[in-house]
Amino acid sequence: MVMHVRAEETVDERGALLAFLAEQRGGLRRSVLGLTDEQASSRPSASELSLAGLLKHVAEVEQWWVAKARGEEPAVRRDQSNWHECFTLVRDETVESQLAYWEKVAAETESFLRTVPSLDDTFELPNEPWFPPNERVSMRWLALHLIRETARHAGHADVIRESLDGATAFELVAKAQGANGG
Hints:
- The chain is mainly alpha-helical.
- It contains 6 helices and 2 strands; from the N terminus they run ααααββαα.
- Strands 1-2 form a two-stranded antiparallel sheet.
- The protein is globular and about 45 Å long.
- The termini are close together.
């Protein structure tokens, strides 16, 4: 798991964007270290957010945006009838299955952003009231948006995890480094 992005290792703009996205994913992934599905699904604050729900949401959102940029249908369709399932584990879903799914999505995102002809290539934003009508955004915008979305929820995850058992992001980094041999 990436815990720090070294400027010398990013080589190019695509590499830098992907490295910062990987760093933010790592923060959210670390938030569930050592927790059971039940703990990760708990909601220790007034918010409806849980760590498991954040994992699921961020993976779905990342896949959705990359599918949109490719001109494809997303893997999961959300509307008013199932939106509530976006932030909670349902049926046979587990934290482990969501981490594995997100790993697959992350690989697809990296492959897509590395092979798209130009970061200046564009796609149309969805026709939703919160987006300007008929606006196009670049692949660079897509990468930055994914970084922003992931970072926002990684911050939520820090607060939730500390509320659960007092573990801070720094302690989780140390735990992850110990689990990975240094």
